[in-house]
Amino acid sequence: MTVAAPPEPILPPRRRPWGIVVLVAVVIVVIGFLAFSSIGSALVYYVTPSELLERGNAAVGETVRLGGLVEQGSVEQRDSEDYELSFVITDSEASIPVVTTSAPTASFREGTGAVVEGSLDEQGVFRATQVIVKHDENYEVPASGTVPSDNSYLPGE
Amino acid sequence: MSDAGFVIAAYAVIVGGLGVYTLALWRRLRAVRGPDDEAR
Amino acid sequence: MKTRILGLVALAAVIAATAVALFVVPPDQNQGDAQRIMYPHVASAWLAYLSFGVTALAGIGWLWKRDLRLDAVAHSAAEIGVMFTAFAIWGGMMWGRPVWGVFWQWEDPRLTTTALLLALYVGYLLLRRLSDDPERRATRAAIVGVIAAVDIPIVHFSVEWWRGLHQTATIGSPDRVLNPAAPMVFVGSLLGMLGAFTLAWLYLMIRRYQLARAEAAREEARRMDRIMTARTVEAAR
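Above: the input entities. Below: the structure tokens describing the complete assembly.
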């Protein structure tokens, strides 16, 4: 007997059997289900002006996201004391006037896409609590002599 | 935060992250193979 | 040695592409400087696709050929892909806040499917830690890797299939390949960044693969060691 006692078992026992694998699979499925069920509702990440107006009075007061283009020439800004921005969101079939006290980012332009969160009031004006600017996939170099944020609608200087 | 701040934050994490991952990989390689190794 | 040269070239390329994207290319007319984040953001996303595509293909290769080197490739690509996915998400958040006005929107399909992509491959890496048996581990990982790859096209086409906040592809969509919706300086800068990141990806893949093989060799040596010790003990009785 010159050899010392075996330091370790012959082969490590096969620990962590199928139970754990099943658990991991369940976790993955649950994550997948949660994600995909939220994608299901994301099919309507925003409603268009036509869709919102179709609902008629039922749409009044309900918190929704409204998406479309900011109509050319419709943006008005008041920032004497209380910042207020108004513009029209259109999908070229229907248009909804929007009023908000929440300033959008500097990329907000007339003609750009926007998603506003809020609700329609009795007068048919959409009171937005948040304005998200939905830029498109087109990029351009600034025209010579202009600065990118020249025409932004951020609150006063 | 200004636009520049976001740009710096984005590049710092992405480009810096590539560097940190590379360094970590060298260390892991050296730990497995031993010190006299050309892992670079 | 050759790998070391590749590493140096990749390092130089990443530095050069970053310098071009930050200081040479003009800002975007509408988005200003924030648009510069597009370059590493998009390049990271494409390399994440590439990584997970490699994980799926190498996984299929393992199931078919039963060669553990293919499993090492799959494992390496998954780990690097997780990193690039995280980069794409981080860059997207840093771009979204100044331009959209929000860091994140759970209801946007592109964002949500990308978060799912990250979760799937983090799960893949965790799954690999659960087994000590290299062959079983490789088989389980291959199956998960192939199933998870289903999310890659979903992520890519989510912007076309569903209404969301994320814009559609500027040059990556089928009808845009030859007619990108951006001036050539922007496209060139993006392709430069993509090329630089791809070099870095190649280098990291080689090193990560070497690590996986070295770990496998050590694992095997330890196993053999234990068997030999056990046999000696048995023989001595």
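Note for the figure: The mean pLDDT of chain B is 87.
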